[in-house]
Amino acid sequence: MKTKKSISSAIIAGALLVGFNQTVAAHVIGNGILGPTASATDYYKVDCTTDPVWRNSTTHHLLVWIQDKSPDSNLVGLSVFSANAGANLKASTTFDPIGGTTGTAAAVSRLTIIGGEGIYNLAVFKTGASIQQYSLYAFCEDVNGVQTNATGLATAYPGVVVSNQ
Amino acid sequence: MQTKSITQSLLAAGVLMLGFNQTVAAHTIANGILGSSAAATDYYQVNCTTTGDGTQIQTHHLFVNIQDKSGDSNLVGVSVFSANAGANLKASTTVDPVGGTTGIGAPTSPNISVVGGEGNYVLAVFKSLASVQQYSLTAHCEDVNGVETNAGGLLTVIPGVVVSNQ
After folding, report:
1. The whole model's pTM is what?
2. Smallest Cβ distance to B79: which of A79, A89, A111?
3. b/e code A67-90 from CB counts within 10 Å (16+ = b)
4. φ/ψ (deg, to 5) at A71
5. What was the ipTM of the complex prediction?
6. What was the pLDDT predicted at B108?
7. What are the E-state strand segments in chain B?
8. Is the dihedral of CA B69, B113, B79, A129 positive or negative?
9. Do A91 and B91 touch (CB under 8 A)?
10. Is B166 close to A88, i.e. CB distance below 8 A?
11. Fewest CB within 10 A of the end CB: N or C in chain A?
């Protein structure tokens, strides 16, 4: 009985974990890698749309940040572009100033690009040669910072990988 | 007579300088400035087309480099993207590793070429930290031999449309 209960608990826990991972995976590139070439750049395209069924919440902005997971002096950064954003607010960049995933290295600056619904382009790059690992976070959100979770978002997110180096 | 010569010389020099500046300006943003915000990013769009002067030279790639003109530890770089480039070769980045216009590292970032043929290229100029940064951005549409295609409208299209300027 105890064994059966334990198995049931494990199944439920596993199901929750799977669900959790799916949700996170829909908004995160957890294991991005930039190749050794100094010019290596990964490029993503994210389409923020309205979910007409669930929340019917219109996307107001894209929230993004990046974590440089390699603890060295080679910095990883992210530029975002939205053609729909306001004049001279269409492009923005953030860097993780310290590589690694522990301590002060974990703190990164978040960017909000107010481009409404539509396509956002994301370029991930680094400042020098050598392989770099990164995690990329991107969320389509409404004006209140609530994820819009638009239809197709799970497949569109973390977006179409347009170029992967 | 001497006055007339001086006037003519000045006029000739002015014409030459004007021509020179137009040519340089056609391929370089010599006085780009990124504002103080760490997130400040300038965004350009360049349209490489075939020359209309009868030679019909087609663009093979966009050649790009950038010079960080501010002599500090805030690095300046540029990412280039072409939707027409080959798989996983659509985007490339170059960073000037040493700021300033004199001494070691003064020249520019490493050169990069994005082989996207004719069409639009987009360029994002960024920096790694807060503080105002000055830069010089060079971009040339070139044929397969590295010869500038100088396409019709290139002089006005290059250095491209400034899509966003921070």
Report:
1. 0.77
2. A79
3. bbbbeeebbbbbbbbbbebeebeb
4. -80, 75
5. 0.76
6. 92
7. 28-34, 42-48, 61-68, 76-81, 91-96, 112-114, 119-127, 133-142, 161-164
8. negative
9. no
10. yes
11. N
